[in-house]
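Please decode residue identities from the backbone states below.
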């Protein structure tokens, strides 16, 4: 069993509406659009050289933590975000009315 490397620092780029991290191969990011009190999670991307290291999960977790801390709801339009929320049922109270995972 190998020890997992911790994810790189995640930055919330409020102007670009995304959470991002500098990683091998470029910048990993989870993009959103804020609509009122809802974060529409649009897209999550990790460069191929950094896939499989838990970076996408760390980005989504940061976005969901931000939503929870700011009493926002989440509309998971990104397939990865939907899958993450299914795997982590404790995040389901963040779902916007009518949203599905």
């Amino acid at each position: 069993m190998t020890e997992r490397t911790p994810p790189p620092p995640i930055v919330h780029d409020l102007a670009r509406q995304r959470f991002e991290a500098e990683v091998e191969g470029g910048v990993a990011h989870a993009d959103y659009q804020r609509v009122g009190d809802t974060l529409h999670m649009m897209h999550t991307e990790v460069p191929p050289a950094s896939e499989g290291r838990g970076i996408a999960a760390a980005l989504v977790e940061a976005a969901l933590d931000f939503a929870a801390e700011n009493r926002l709801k989440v509309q998971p339009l990104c397939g990865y975000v939907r899958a993450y929320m299914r795997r982590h049922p404790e995040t389901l109270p963040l779902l916007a009315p009518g949203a599905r995972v």
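Observation: The chain has a mean pLDDT of 94.
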